[in-house]
Amino acid sequence: MPMNMIVCCKQVLDPEAPPASFKVDPASNQVVPPPGVPPVISPFDEQAVEAALRIKDSQGGKITVLSLGNNLLRDVVKKPLSMGADELVLLEDEAYEGGDSWSTAYALAMAIKKIGEFDLVFCGRQAADWDAGQVGSGIAELLGIPSVTVARKVEVADGKATVERVIADGYQVIEVTLPALITVSNELGEARYATLKGIMAAAKKQPTIWKPADIELDPSQIGAAGRRAKLLKLFQPVREGKCEMVEGDSPAEAGANLAAKLREAKVI
Amino acid sequence: MAEFKGIMVYGEIAEGNLSAITTELLGCGRRLADESKEDLLCILIADQLGETPQKAIAFGADKVYTVENPLLKEYQTESYVVVMEKAVQDISPRVLLMGQTSVGRDLAPRLAFRLGVSAAMDCLELDIDPETKLLQQTRPVYGGNARATFSSDSFPQIATVRQKAMAPLEPDKSRKGEITPLKVDLDPAAIRTKVIETVKEEVAGIKLEDAEAIVTGGRGIGGPEGFKELEELAKVLKAAVGASRPPCDNGWVPDTMQVGLTGKIVTPELYIAVALSGASQHLAGCSGAKNIVAINRDAEANIFKEARFGVVGDWKQVLPAFTAKVKELLAG
Ligand SMILES: Cc1cc2nc3c(=O)[nH]c(=O)nc-3n(C[C@H](O)[C@H](O)[C@H](O)COP(=O)(O)OP(=O)(O)OC[C@H]3O[C@@H](n4cnc5c(N)ncnc54)[C@H](O)[C@@H]3O)c2cc1C
Ligand SMILES: Nc1ncnc2c1ncn2[C@@H]1O[C@H](COP(=O)(O)O)[C@@H](O)[C@H]1O
């Protein structure tokens, strides 16, 4: 049976940028974007798109992608389209800036209500910037639908999804009634690459843009105004960084010297 | 309006016992309760609780609330969130602490949204502001590149706490406390998920979380054969073997071996990192190790910023001699 699916994708600073390029501006409590490193779709969200695409491959369906933010880069947010998603809806406005898990989940849930018909909503297990892992569960709660978090496999049949949920020492197989929300983890496997055909098709597609009023959002509940978690301080932990380099005439000798060094320091 | 009072710990039970995170939360909760001169409360939920309520008292709780019901045999979001919603309404704690575990990371946000409050996930430090009495929650963000301190003024203030970030108290069996059963009505029809099976994929040998020494391989190990060499070193050191994410993603080793932000959090005495670069998301899982030792052919690799000892070189040449020498030293 074809599935109606929605995937929430967040644009974030590239989490794999070299750690040395990471800077915080303590005055504004904000991260300074590293120059020359473009933002990306949060990696787990790409895998959420992949989870939806696998279902679409096997039984058909439609995938609508939702991204919330301001000044979203079209090349970045269109990536799910070039992977094979069908539609892109952007919640894009200044008013969405500075939000937290609450205001973000609220706006996304209202957008999903406006889309109306859906069987499955996918999110990443956590966004690679604030690493909160709350928005998925929050959307499910606001929509009153069941959720399964940290999935590594999702299959649908007979109005139900069967989900493998990652736990510390293995996984659980969970059956959930539809509609449901599922958050996806990297154990799902790599997201597919965009094809050339996909990139060309995506270039032609215009995203739909919803301002707060389009989805009947209460202005006091969105962006910075709707925050329930107050950020007091953002800072970089100090690293001591005094590594003693052990050398030798050959790599093998360096290895043996390392063992001797560890013995000397009573580490082994 | 109810007055919010007390620091509450959501306790997890594993194989009939309090799980390690629960004793850590009780240790942290005891300090917060003493600082704010309030009671330390603990809620325990399961099909059968056995002796765990008494143990929670020994580990620091003043009052333990128990919920026993066959429907609560396994954690499921929708049954547990109903129980916790009721418990919070009945008891009105000011602070609610949970573990950043498979359960806590699922339950805390769902409960927070149901109650209309915010939650801070994966906290490393918790403090009570002496003036406002509000909980300040410090957690890693941006993959561990930065930390953020949050607070909120809606109650309960909910926080999940990273495993091994807090120390448990020595259990004291003579401690006195109250145990109160709570009654919660559960409607099986309202639970829209069903656990079909639970599959354990634990690798043989020493568990990563418990190991005193760990040998971890990264992408530079190149394949499953390379991990055999790491196992040899691990055998000599009585260590567990871990991995950064790429070896798991590539199927060289099981996913349960991943160390890091979204893998296991480990705090061994010795952590030998071989052919991994030391991305912040990896360090998030191992920076609590006492001694990090790095072998990497790139002298600029970030892991050397965290390591105490390092060798720059190809692990294929460095490691056999290292293993042989360790064997010799430990034998002699
Ligand atoms: C939200 C998020 C969560 C994440 N969670 C985790 C997590 O929990 N755990 C985790 O590990 N990662 C996690 N990652 C991925 C992380 O960002 C890095 O991509 C990953 O840790 C890199 O693994 P690596 O160091 O093995 O590989 P690389 O970064 O590719 O490093 C390989 C290293 O091996 C060295 N090398 C190569 N060949 C040799 C040789 N022959 N001899 C010696 N040295 C050699 C290279 O110099 C290099 O330094 C996460 C990422 C994101 C975005
Ligand atoms: N601004 C956003 N736009 C679209 N989806 C988002 C946004 N923020 C969070 N999400 C979704 O919610 C997941 C969890 O985010 P978080 O709770 O912030 O870690 C992400 O992986 C996304 O799927």
Break the fold down into its secondary structure elements and pairings.
The complex is a heterodimer of chains A (268) and B (332).
Chain A: E1 3-8, E2 11-12, E3 23-25, E4 30-32, E5 40-41, H1 43-59, E6 61-69, H2 74-77, H3 79-83, E7 87-92, H4 101-115, E8 120-124, H5 135-143, E9 147-157, E10 160-167, E11 170-177, E12 180-184, H6 196-204, E13 208-209, E14 230-235, E15 244-245, H7 251-264
Parallel strand pairs in A: 1-6, 1-8, 6-7, 7-13, 8-12, 9-12
Antiparallel strand pairs in A: 2-5, 3-4, 9-10, 10-11
Helix pairs in contact in A: 4-5
Chain B: E1 7-11, E2 13-14, E3 17-18, H1 20-35, E4 40-46, H2 52-58, E5 63-68, H3 77-91, E6 95-99, H4 104-115, E7 119-123, E8 125-128, E9 135-141, E10 146-151, E11 157-161, E12 178-181, E13 193-200, E14 213-217, H5 224-237, E15 240-243, H6 245-249, E16 270-274, H7 280-286, E17 291-296, H8 303-306, E18 309-312, H9 315-331
Parallel strand pairs in B: 1-4, 1-6, 4-5, 5-12, 6-11, 7-11, 14-15, 14-16, 16-17, 17-18
Antiparallel strand pairs in B: 2-3, 8-9, 9-10
Helix pairs in contact in B: 3-4, 5-9
Bound molecules: flavin-adenine dinucleotide and adenosine monophosphate (AMP).
